[in-house]
Structure formats: structure tokens, C-alpha cells
Amino acid sequence: MSHTVTLEELLSSTLRELYHTHKQLLQKLPILVDSVKLNHLKILLSSHLFETGTHISRLEAAASVLSSDIEFEKRSAAVADLMRSLDKALGERWQKDSGVLDVNVIVSLKCLKRYSMALYCNALEFANELGMDEVFERLATSFYEENALTEDLGAVFEDEQENDRDANEIKSPAAFDGSAAWNSGRIMAGR
């Protein structure tokens, strides 16, 4: 006889996945904070370190409502791949150019956050269907915080890209080759 998976089991499994994702990130965030160069990114990651601990507490509380053993060891291939991408971002080859390191950390972390947000969406659906308002509220708060971080990371990325564009405009050969000044001189002389 086959076992039919219940919504509670799906919710419990999703909470476990979120829990282990956050636990792994909690270990990685201090390394990221120490490694990145952009001050705004350091502040954002430091703030998220505290927030991640809060997410873990909420997940533990949600699991206790379900009487679920959230500590059960479950390794996800998806989370392992996303964590490897963060490790890769911290690798030696990125250390030479801090701008590349920071951008790579932002992109890798945004991927991990999007995965977490998808899990939160699933958990929210399950909790809603089960009428578990307390669990729903805890998860919704964490979901919105994850979404805000993703948007903030996107803003840092956009600012960094804008700064790079501005720096490249200043350093471009056309800006220094004198042709613009020569042409403006010709125009002023009526040639």
C-alpha cells in the first residue's frame, strides 16, 4: 500500500528545506561580509545576518505548531549548488578585482534568495490551505523580508553597474584622444 503525502507533510518538508537553507547561509554570511568591498553591501549583508537568525527562529516556531522535527538532516541538491556558487564567488580568482567579487556575490545571493522565496510561496500556500494562520503570518513576514533583501541587492547591483559605466566613460580613449577638443576648435574657427 502506497503512502499518500498530506499537505502537512509537504509543509513540514518545505519548512525543513527553508530551515537548512537559512542555517547554511547563516554560516556563510560572516565570510561574505568580510570579503565584499562595497560599504553598502557590507551593511546590507550584516543586517541580513541578524535577519537570517530571526528567520530560523520563525521556522522553528512554525515547525513546532506542526509538531515537526525541523532539525532532521536534509541536504538539498539545489541549495548545495547555490552554496557552491557563493563559494565560487569567494574563490581566489575573484579576489583580484573587488568589483567583480561584489557583483558575483550579489548575483549568487539573489539566486539563493529567489529559491528561498519560491519555497516560502509554497509553504504559504500549504499553511493557507491548512488554515494555519499563525504559521502563515510567520512565514509571510520572512517572505517579505527576503523580498526586500532581493530588491536591495538589485539596487546595489544597479548602483555598481552605474558607477562602472560612469568610470568607463571617464576612462574611455575617446575622452582622452583630443579629437573632441580638436573638432570643437575647428567648429569655433569656422572650418
Question: Which characteristics define this entry?
Answer:
191 residues, Ferritin, 8 helices, 0% strand, disordered C terminus
Topology (SSEs and partners):
Elements: H1 7-35, H2 39-66, H3 77-89, H4 92-95, H5 98-129, H6 133-171, H7 173-176, H8 179-188
User: In angstroms, what separates the terminal alpha carbons?
Assistant: 93 Å
Here the CATH topology equals Ferritin
According to DSSP, the number of beta strands is 0
* N-to-C series of helices and strands: HHHHHHHH
CATH superfamily: Ferritin, core subunit, four-helix bundle
Major sheet attributes: none
- Strand proportion: under 5%
User: Counting H and I runs of at least 4 residues, what is the number of helices?
Assistant: 8
Which percent range fits the helix content? over 70%
Global outline: elongated
Tally of individual domains: 1
3D structure, described in words:
The chain has a single domain (7-171), classed as Ferritin, core subunit, four-helix bundle (Ferritin), CATH 1.20.1260. With 191 residues, the chain is mainly α. It is elongated, with a radius of gyration of 23 Å. The longest helix is centred in the last third of the chain and has 39 residues, at 133-171. The protein is built from eight helices and no strands.
